[in-house]
Structures are given as C-alpha cells and as structure tokens.
Design goal:
Length: 160
C-alpha cells in the first residue's frame, strides 16, 4: 500500500510553489511604490441612462478624467466641481447600482432577491440628466472608456 500522506504532501508543496509567485506579484506595488495598473480618476459630466436590457449608464459631455486624490471628496472640491466646465468625453459607468435610487438598485442584477425597498442602501445621486462629479477606476479598453464607480456626488439636477 502506498503512503497517501506523502503524495498529499508532494501535491501541497507543488501547489504552494505555484501560488506563491503570483501572490507575491500582487503585493509588489505596495512594497516597491509601483503605479497600479488601473488609475483612480475623477471627472464631471452629465449622467445619461440608456434604455435596454440591462440598461446602461453613461457619463456624457464629461471633462477630461484626471487622477483623483485619495479619500473622499472634500467640500472645496465639490464646490469647485459645480462651476467646472463640461467637456467632450463619454464614459460608460459601471457599478452604478449603489448610486441609484432604491427602485433602480432593486432592478439591478439580482439585488431584489436579497434586498427589500426598506433596507436598500441607495445613495440616489445618479439620475438621468444630472450634472455629477464621479470618482472611479478608469478602464481604457479598445471598445471604449469605462469608469467603475467608487463615488458619485450630484452637482445640479440638470446639465444645462
């Protein structure tokens, strides 16, 4: 009869040996100060809901996205953004559910299966036609630019 614990130990050592380099690489930026591969950016633009299944949210007439400072938006930054000019950029917004109203959040994915209107944690900042300040991870892909939202602040109820 073979020693099964010896075979198990050999497999475990091989698996750990393969997993360690990728785990070490993931943390490398924090140690060496290397720039992350995805920038956290902020910009101002007009929220636009596009009908469809699923519906899509866009940031249109957006100013150039620029690298965002760490942390939450300061009052000074929000006030400055209210007067910031719009631009000619367009970004698809992803990760929008938490920034919609409760009804919009419940329509998103499978949220209605585990969330009720009474306990929906929806910020209600993202509405069609609103001027907004957004912060998120910039995804610059061949098929277009997207921002995976981290924060949304309504600046005015219209983009006029």
């Amino acid at each position: 009869m073979r020693n099964s614990s010896g075979v198990f130990a050999a497999i475990l050592v091989a698996a750990v040996g393969v997993a360690l380099p990728s785990a070490a690489q993931r943390g490398r930026g924090a140690v060496t100060g290397e720039k992350p591969t995805v920038d956290i950016v902020q910009t101002v633009g007009c929220a636009a809901r596009k009908a469809g299944n699923p519906e899509t949210w866009m940031l249109t007439r957006a100013a150039d996205a620029r690298v965002a400072p760490p942390g939450i938006f300061s009052t000074t930054l929000v006030e400055a953004a209210k007067n910031a000019p719009l631009g000619a950029n367009s970004f698809q917004l992803i990760g929008v559910a938490d920034f919609l109203d409760a009804e919009g959040l419940l329509k998103s994915g499978q949220r209605k299966e585990f969330t009720t209107p009474e306990n929906a944690n929806a910020a209600n900042q993202l509405r069609d036609g609103r001027k907004v300040l957004v912060k998120g991870m910039l995804i610059d892909a061949a098929d277009g630019k997207r921002i995976n939202l981290l924060a949304v602040i309504a600046l005015s109820d219209s983009c006029a």
